[in-house]
Amino acid sequence: MKQELLDFLNTDLQFVKGVGPVLAARLNDVLGGRRVLDFMMHHPSGMRRRDLIDNIMDAAPGDIVTVPVLVQSVRAGRVFRGRRSPTQITCVDRAGNKIIVQFFNANFLDYWLQKLPVGQWRIISGKLERPSRGGNVINHPEFIEPMDAADKIPQVQAIYPAGEGLTQKTFANIRDQIFGALDTNVGLRGADDQTREFFDAMRAVHFPQDPMDLKPCADAMVKLAYYELLAHQSAIAITRRERADARHRRVVRPKKCDLMDRFYDLLPFDLTPAQMQTIDEIKHDMTRDIPMMRLVQGDVGSGKTIVAMAAAVLCAETGGQTVLLAPTDTLAQQHFFKLRPLCEKLGLVCECLTGRDKGAVRREKLISLRSGRTKLAVGTHALFSDDVIYRDLALVIVDEQHRFGVSQRTAMRAKGNNPDVLALSATPIPRTLSMTIYGDMDVSVIHQKPAGRKPIITTKLPMGRIGALIPRMMAQIDAGAKVFWVTPLVCDDTESDMTAAVARHEMLKKYFPTAGLVHGQMDKKQRDGVMETFARDDGDMSLLVATTVIEVGIDVPRATIMVIENAERFGLAALHQLRGRVGRGSAQSYCVLVHGDNVTPDGMKRLDVLCETDDGFVIAEQDLMMRGVGELLGTRQSGWIPYHFVDYREHRDLFKLAARAAADMTTPTEWTHDLMYMFDRATTIGA
Fold it and tell me: For the residues 468-488, what does the mean pLDDT come to?
């Protein structure tokens, strides 16, 4: 790939016309990066037509309509009993039908009057509503243009997964700027056929002309999915060959002390046979001259963390250091507080290093790591910062490994001399795919739950019966329990009937005054503080309203009720992860799946699967068979590799094709390296 094109793909989005640093920061939260390349990988999830009509009565409630209107009058919003009514602008279409255009923010009244001047014709485009009291209403039209600027309203609008402060207009502007630059400033005329084909397919996905263009079976989506899988499988093949290469062999580390028997004696419970077998497999790997590359798959609550601790103890027996890499501060802190007491009893120094550590505290931890005194370091990406030096890093444990990019994992391994690598996966991968997805790794499966854990009783509940939950929760809380209440949205959305976390929190505070609230838009320290308060046994916060930020990274043994609102909008894997936040103690736990009235058959089937089984592998297989594109809330597939273009259900044959092509490749081509760079994923630990 030409250097000019690579430089363009690496351009920070803040330098794209109309973006700037503030908007780039918001995009980073949604895209997982702020390069042009990150935006291109964030493809539309759907499309919307905005064909011009003259008669509003030709449209149904809920339709997106684009219609010329004559502005007749304005009624400014008024304050009544502490509440402000919306500003209403009365218009008529060419057939004489009255349309009320409503705005709810009084601060922009002058702006709206300028956009919709009385006595003038304008073209508006937005969602048509017909309230029960009658009439035609459009709230906050997405487009308002003069009659001679109709071309500014796209007939076909790509719909991108967005976030706070990001509109579809923003995404469309950035997309147009990027692909315009590809055509003019960068130019692909001198590129090879594969590069041009790749970017042509990318263009087709970002500029869909028909809903079918975004289906997994569309030509462009199939091409991009294949290229993504080829990048992944090529990295697997490279890693596999490197591991077998004699140049990467190592001297087997001799054991310097015995700690494992003491470790087992200190545990307040017996490990399951599956945990013991996994530890034996890890021990066997760590005594070979080929560095370990093992994935531990286990259902939620199956005890992967204690297996990771056993691996760290095995490493300490040889005098080596272990790092446990977690994707978030919250999860890192949780692991640290859970493992430090065990380490202290074993005489091992355990430290936690995250981005929060500054000044003298950070310096002390770095000195301890450099000297070899710290035997187990738990933390986030801060563990592989340039100033972090290890005396003898021998084992890297990566939790939620699919969340770390290739460059991050490679940087971590570079801190040691061919260290062993142990990856943990919180949600089981279907057995039919695991060997293809993790072809360079040995796989251990923990298929049993610790003794004393009771199956979580899962039930469905219609939205209209939410009131019946309150006394049940009160009784459980009075008995010492804690309750999670999860909603899909943060704030009210006029285009959705899903209850917002903020609104639900206000309602529940009437019954539970100390109820807490956490969501992804809160300040990180504030959010972590609320979670820690909820997790404390001595705290008075017994109910936590949250979005899916609690899907991983919070362990509250006293929590026995999980309420998931609008559960039909979540995928099976996400529901299973959320349910796994309860049932972590010996008490009976419950999960209530609250669903709306308009549940699709597929949505109800997902809820039925959750009610029938708590076997993560069964759920993963069902998830694979049922998963549809664009149907579920969110795009991340919990515990699975977060592909950009690959659909696990529709592209199963592509996995085999890509694996075969990568295996037949004696030496990776320049194009293959370009693919691995663009997708940053090879997603295997050793890539």
Answer: 90
What is the per-residue pLDDT across 106-116, written as a single tens digit (0 to 9) for each?
A: 667 788 888 99
Neighbours of 334 (CB within 10 A): 21
Q: Which two tokens stand for residue 419?
A: 């260290």
Q: Which residue has the tokens 């991983």?
A: 552
Edge-to-edge strand ranges of the sheet holding 482-486: 457-462, 590-595, 559-565, 482-486, 543-546, 516-518
Task: Look at strands 98-103 and 83-84 and give their pairing.
Answer: unpaired
The answer to whether 629 and 216 have CB atoms below 8 angstroms apart is: yes
Q: Which two tokens stand for residue 295?
A: 């994935």
Quote the Cα angle for 581-586-587, to 5°. Answer: 80
Nearest Cα to Cα of residue 469 among 599, 558, 592, 568:
592
Closest among 482, 513, 481, 515 to 501, alpha carbons compared: 515
Helix or strand holding residue 351 (H, E):
strand 349-353
Q: By C-alpha distance, which of 272, 296, 269 is closest to 282?
A: 296
Distance CA 423, CA 438 (A): 11
Q: What percent of the chain shows pLDDT beyond 90? A: 42
- Contact present, 650 and 212 (Cβ < 8 Å): no
User: For residue 176, what are the CA distances in angstroms to 173, 182, 212, 241?
Assistant: 5, 10, 21, 42
By three-state DSSP, how is residue 168 classified? helix
CA distance 680 to 404: 10
Q: Over the Cα atoms of the chain, what is R_g?
A: 27
List, for residues 643-677, the tens digit of each pLDDT value: 889 887 788 889 889 988 988 887 778 888 888 88
Under the phi-then-psi rule, with left for phi > 0, alpha for psi from -120 to 50, and beta for the rest, what region is 480?
A: left
Tokens of 1: 């790939």
Q: What is the pLDDT of residue 611?
A: 94
For 598, what's the count of Cα atoms within 13 Å in the CB-facing half-sphere?
Answer: 3
318-345 pLDDT tens trace = 999 999 988 878 788 888 988 999 999 9
Distance CA 224, CA 197 (A): 10
Residues 282-289, mean pLDDT to the nearest whole number: 93
DSSP state of 85: P
d(CA 402, CA 643): 10
Structure tokens at 310: 């056993």
Those residues with Cβ within 8 angstroms of residue 184's Cβ, 6 or more apart along the chain or in another chain: none
For residue 407, pLDDT over 60 is answered with no
Q: Please tell me the distance from the alpha carbon of residue 497 to that of residue 479, in angstroms, as a whole number.
A: 34
